Amino acid sequence: MKQVILPRPFKSHKGNFGRVLTIGGNENYGGAILMSSSAAVHAGAGLVSCATDTKNLTALHSIVPEAMFINYQNDVELVNAVDAANVLVIGPGLGTDATALKILQKVISNTNTKQFIIVDGSAITLAAQEPALLEILATRKTIYTPHQMEWQRLSGIEISKQNNIKNALKQQELEATVVLKKYHTTIYHTDGSASQLEVGGPYMSTGGMGDTLTGIIAAFLGQFHFKNYEHVVDAAVYAHSALGQELAASKYVVLPTDIINHLQHFMSNYVQSTIQK
Ligand SMILES: NC(=O)C1=CN([C@@H]2O[C@H](COP(=O)(O)OP(=O)(O)OC[C@H]3O[C@@H](n4cnc5c(N)ncnc54)[C@H](O)[C@@H]3O)[C@@H](O)[C@H]2O)[C@@H](O)CC1
Ligand SMILES: Nc1ncnc2c1ncn2[C@@H]1O[C@H](COP(=O)(O)OP(=O)(O)O)[C@@H](O)[C@H]1O
Ligand SMILES: [Mg+2]
């Protein structure tokens, strides 16, 4: 794998490491967008804003005070936040009701071709029913992060019939990167290639683990600038599961918040060990 996590240049500031906007977290699923936002902060995003339900404001500020709050029901605030971001995560805990769909439409229709858009969870379930949204996303640097059931909804391929050939055909139609999450996740790239993860395991099967992954991908895309950004997506997916595997040496289950709390050490160790080589 290409080395993606790099030492930081001295002449730099928060603006160089990504302006990430996370969008999701209705009144029942606030935890999902908090984990995404917190993972983005801990994986090194320079600035993180979280567009969510007002009910999550206090929790956001207490769990991750580094992040800024946007009321996702306020159209002006939301559109300004979308404009200012260079990486967006939409979907963790967004829900699938009419409010969620309105927010998804507002966000996607205000994005531009320079931005990275990570589409996860509820946003995948909603977009699967909205061809007009899929069409816009096909013109963006979109990364879908479905688990197998979400991929069934988006691709129309039943879980038992999902295989590399069928998955890649559908992914090429979507004109986007697809991170198909499962035991040994497969990543389908826009050039037709695919990579297969060989780390991670069932100690990672706790709700919120995928929400956490979205924040790591966002932070990596915001701060590590490569011509082929899909190397960066691969590295983020690898880091998430490699860290899970490392922590599983002494934990029966690895929680999403364990991953978040160890990201800084993991990334530091990785950079130190590669400098010494
Ligand atoms: N603390 C929180 O606020 C949490 C919020 N969540 C949010 O809840 C919303 C619904 O997402 P869910 O994924 O729970 O619900 P979904 O209904 O989209 O998917 C879960 C269903 O898919 C099945 N399934 C089949 N293969 C699977 C695979 N490889 N991985 C996972 N599930 C598989 C499961 O058995 C289950 O029936 C999303 O917006 C998500 O972000 C979840 O992430 C859980 C934690
Ligand atoms: N048995 C497993 N082996 C390897 N990785 C797993 C396993 N179970 C879950 N994971 C990982 O945990 C994450 C779960 O994502 P997802 O189902 O979207 O969770 P959530 O929506 O609850 O946050 C994915 O990255 C997936 O690959
Ligand atoms: Mg999920």
UniProtKB/TrEMBL annotation:
Domain (YjeF C-terminal): residue spans on this chain: 1-270
Cofactors, names only: Mg(2+)
GO MF annotations, alphabetized: ADP-dependent NAD(P)H-hydrate dehydratase activity; ATP binding; kinase activity; NAD(P)HX epimerase activity
Pfam families: Carb_kinase
PROSITE patterns, sorted: YJEF_C_2 (PS01050), YJEF_C_3 (PS51383)
Domain of life: Bacteria
Keyword rRNA-binding carried by entry: no
UniProtKB keywords: ATP-binding, Kinase, Lyase, NAD, NADP, Nucleotide-binding, Transferase
NADP keyword on record: yes
Entry binding sites for AMP: 181-185, 210
Binding site for (6S)-NADPHX: 32, 93, 147, 211
Enzyme Commission code(s) on record: 4.2.1.136
UniProt record, GO biological process: metabolite repair; nicotinamide nucleotide metabolic process
Catalytic activity annotation: (6S)-NADPHX + ADP = AMP + phosphate + NADPH + H(+); (6S)-NADHX + ADP = AMP + phosphate + NADH + H(+)
Function, in words: Catalyzes the dehydration of the S-form of NAD(P)HX at the expense of ADP, which is converted to AMP. Together with NAD(P)HX epimerase, which catalyzes the epimerization of the S- and R-forms, the enzyme allows the repair of both epimers of NAD(P)HX, a damaged form of NAD(P)H that is a result of enzymatic or heat-dependent hydration.
Family that this chain belongs to: Belongs to the NnrD/CARKD family.
Xref: NCBIfam families: yjeF_cterm
HAMAP family given in the database record: NADHX_dehydratase
Subunit structure: Homotetramer.
Protein name, per record: ADP-dependent (S)-NAD(P)H-hydrate dehydratase
Gene name of the encoded protein: nnrD
